[in-house]
Amino acid sequence: MINTAASVARALANAGINRVFGLPGGEILVLMDELRRAGIDFVLMRHESNAGIAAGVYGKLLGQPGVVLTTLGPGAANLMLPLSNSYLDQEPLLAISAQLSDDSPSGHTHQRLPLLETYQPVTKYVSRITPANVNEVLPRALAECMKRPFGPAFLTLSTRDAIDSVAPGVTGVRTTRNGGNRTRARETVQHVMDELRQAQRPIVLVGLGVDGRNYSRLRRWLDGWNLPVAVTPKIKGIVDERANNFVGVVGGMAADDLMVQALEFADLRIGFGFDPVEVDKTWHAQLPIRWILEAPNVGNIVPEGAELIDHTEFLDAISEHDAPARWGRPFGDVQQRRQKLLHGGESTSERMWPGDLISTLASVLPPETIITTDVGSHKYLYGQFWPSQRPDTFWMSNGLSGMSYGIAAAIGAKCARPDVPVVAAVGDGGFSMNSQELETAKRIGMPFITVVLEDGSYSLIKLSQENKKLEPYRTDFDPIDSVKTAEACGIEGFRTSNPGEVASVITRAVESNVGLVISVPIRYSDYRRLF
Ligand SMILES: Cc1ncc(C[n+]2csc(CCOP(=O)(O)OP(=O)(O)O)c2C)c(N)n1
User: Fold this and answer.
1) Phi and psi dihedrals of 125, rounded to 5?
2) Is the dihedral of CA 81, 239, 66, 90 positive or negative?
3) 374 CB less than 6 Å from ligand 1?
4) What's the gap in Å between 428 CA and the centre of ligand 1?
5) pTM for this one?
6) How does pLDDT run across 426-469, given as a tens digit for each residue?
7) Which of 51, 167, 215, 372 is most buried as measured by Cβ atoms within 10 A of its Cβ?
8) What whole-number distance in Å separates Cα of residue 13 and Cα of residue 9?
9) Tens of pLDDT along 16-30?
């Protein structure tokens, strides 16, 4: 006979999970010990929210649910941000927290929270784990996380249940990705061919509902036919953004007006795995879209007129045909204006033009580099202008847009891909939310580079205040020295506004695979010229 905690650990190990991220409380020590015995590493972090974000990115990169473990009460309460992020950003995340035992007196209110009721609306599945149901609940939760759209599940385990015995026999689950309806794929190909034959300005809008493993098929179709393509931020890298047919990034990034103009100008919009959860405006509801989805969008939404079809089948079938028309470069003007924006300013000895930072980083970082961003003006900058080349190399919180994502995501990414450089691009506001995790990265031997854009403000909000013609009020802050913060966490810090210095310091850090914080002073108002 094994206890329930051991059953949980065994189910996770059988599902191929080798790391769980979290922060302990006394109530999860038994489960932590069982994880250790099952060969699962517990990645000790400094905030549960960061642990959840790291786990979601780690899981998605490995094609399995990421797992975060917390104590009850406050530890579990800190899971709201990562669970919401997982829900809206399609990152598979299984969260397990402790909970009070049933036998605790009803008047015992210390750390008692209605956790299942709280998290039920932002997850795909919630349940208590008990000795009686552990064999069903764990496989179900893991499978729910991986069912498209990917998302979160939340489970609780009380200290009492953790040590109670269950009958052996947990075999674990194989997580699967569900496809669409194969029979309709060929029909849809015919419709799309007909529509494309008529179109002069078609654009394919690729979104996070695309399985990254289909990237070469997708490129064969789009590049082979020279079809104009735009992407949403969370699928950046699915196409090569340096290619001639790449129009830009839609979904509230820099140059958004330009992107919306392009979409309005198009006479055929093909939404390939496109999920409006990434879009902060409502054009997706007004402009007609030919949807090609293989799974429902976030919230289990299937837009009107959309059929669920298998993308692999569709891409294989459409690639058997020649392009039904030639479109030239209908969005050439938009493409040029987009590039001009990036080069529309100048660095000085005190402040770097944000566009120069992008160009500099792009010139020295290898194409396999994983970029994670935080949330703010810098996210708009990287989201639009970082020239992604490979799938799964760009990570941001966009459906939720939750600050503090960047550094936590970098830890998850580096754990999943220790062999590639990882760069967290953050603002000085976001950096101060969770820079303590630099110590985590150092301690667990997962070094990455953090680029901090220093402008002494929550610049996105400050700009919004200005746009609304409001008095400047409480959007500036005094600096917390990010170089010293880095050093306090045991890694090197460096400040410069010189593009050449950025290039050489980063090249050295990449070559020697060490952690680095590089702080780059910028002017918040420069962002205005990019948006
Ligand atoms: C957790 C959370 N709190 C608040 C916000 C609202 N918000 C969005 S961007 C932003 C400013 C971020 O400032 P900073 O990290 O310095 O980046 P910058 O805008 O300067 O590039 C704020 C406060 C948010 N998205 N998430």
Assistant:
1) -160, 135
2) positive
3) yes
4) 9
5) 0.96
6) 999 999 999 999 999 999 999 999 999 999 999 999 999 999 99
7) 51
8) 6
9) 999 999 999 999 999
